[in-house]
Amino acid sequence: MGRIIAVANQKGGVGKTTTAINLAASLAVAEKKTLLVDIDPQANAGSGLGCKKNEIRESVYHALIGEKDIKDVIRRTELKYLDLAPSNIDLTGAEIELVSAISRETRLREAIASISDDYDYIIIDCPPSLGLLTVNSLTSADSVIVPMQCEYFAMEGLSHLLNTVNLIKKSLNPSIKIEGILLTMFDQRNRLSHQVAEDIRAHFKEQVFESVIPRNVKLSECTSFGKPILLYDIKSRGAVGYLDLAQELMARH
Amino acid sequence: MGRIIAVANQKGGVGKTTTAINLAASLAVAEKKTLLVDIDPQANAGSGLGCKKNEIRESVYHALIGEKDIKDVIRRTELKYLDLAPSNIDLTGAEIELVSAISRETRLREAIASISDDYDYIIIDCPPSLGLLTVNSLTSADSVIVPMQCEYFAMEGLSHLLNTVNLIKKSLNPSIKIEGILLTMFDQRNRLSHQVAEDIRAHFKEQVFESVIPRNVKLSECTSFGKPILLYDIKSRGAVGYLDLAQELMARH
Ligand SMILES: Nc1ncnc2c1ncn2[C@@H]1O[C@H](COP(=O)(O)OP(=O)(O)OP(=O)(O)O)[C@@H](O)[C@H]1O
Ligand SMILES: Nc1ncnc2c1ncn2[C@@H]1O[C@H](COP(=O)(O)OP(=O)(O)OP(=O)(O)O)[C@@H](O)[C@H]1O
Ligand SMILES: [Mg+2]
Ligand SMILES: [Mg+2]
User: Residues B120-137: pLDDT tens digits?
Assistant: First the structure.
């Protein structure tokens, strides 16, 4: 049974998609069978792997509303052990469409159940909100990775996200836990980065990953070429950061 | 009748809140009576002006559901000509609560109507989604400012946002127009920044503001002190960028 990990934080632009893509790719090169599920209507995870948005007819949306089996939505990527369940624009309407649907919170869990034994890891990239799409992801997941920028606003919304995880733990998914808080866009030269990182470690102690992702322009550039960082520049600090993270994760499970 | 401007982009972390706070503050020091409306449940605009989240009892939420008049929610700030209508955690539930409510898209417009003559500018900070809170903002606004990071994903979601604006123009708010696309976090040293900025200008021509906001750590630091950049470091490149933007805007209206 593969481990299902949601990458979530309602704060925008903190590196959720960059983490989901590059963690999944790093697990795949370690020959772990990995599925990346993109449940963000922005569909950035797909495009970061070179998948053109307007090519996607069937997406996670069709699996959520029960029109397709998730097996029919999954596609292969450049990496042998990495598959992708892409998003598309139809997902935007899903939150409003699902509001009055039956078992609206567990649709993704039901969709993934049929394929979870085919993978060692399933990574879910969430949108920047705590709506039904993120709730569905947290209801499906064994654990959640919370990327946090080393910037001021980072700590602001965290209590809200952790409350949501607790609510889900009480009602929909008793086994969910925090896999870890991941410090992203850490800038060595910037005092604020060090200060926020210290605050986060003091507050969350061993819940913070050892691995830290530095601010590294290669992580932006690789996306514009539709490649994960390890296929673009494996020696870059960004690539090393995510390979470290994958190692840290594999050592636990 | 004050000009109502929404700051919107469903892509997360592009500088919506930083733009809303610092544009509003720059207009206020030019002695334009300005109201900053925070309709993002993350309530970052309030905290960027030193307003503690847990102090807010009445927020924009109570004006949206009709429990309070927006006048009772508005509070003063450190700047004489800048008022704030703060957000709080109650707003998170608003999207689901409003789905089946009457006139769910025009609640904010109705709430603002009673005070719009008291201000020269009303700036609305939107959440990173195209849900009912952003739809309410676009339905209330005369125009919309779209902050765009000079990064790869920036262009990805833009067509989706522009489609939403057009839909609103056809049905709910015929007079809305694009005030401008604002290039944010522009990094002089970074090739990708220049490339994306060129692409955006080639594509959107005169719809792109002349003013460009540079990547400037002071814009992050000032937030941790609860001050707009011009009260934190008026000589910084970040402050100059937003003062330029305010000038450009005032020259038009
Ligand atoms: N470590 C890093 N160094 C430099 N740039 C980064 C890094 N991580 C992410 N970025 C860039 O920052 C921007 C935001 O990252 P990303 O899109 O992964 O965040 P997100 O949390 O998924 O955003 P959203 O909230 O919109 O889903 C992107 O342009 C990305 O290329
Ligand atoms: N020009 C800039 N230079 C450096 N840092 C910036 C700049 N503009 C914004 N930031 C920082 O980048 C982060 C994202 O900015 P901000 O919160 O304003 O974006 P947003 O679009 O409002 O995010 P969300 O989608 O979560 O609402 C913040 O930590 C902010 O301090
Ligand atoms: Mg993302
Ligand atoms: Mg914001």
Answer: 999 999 999 988 999 999
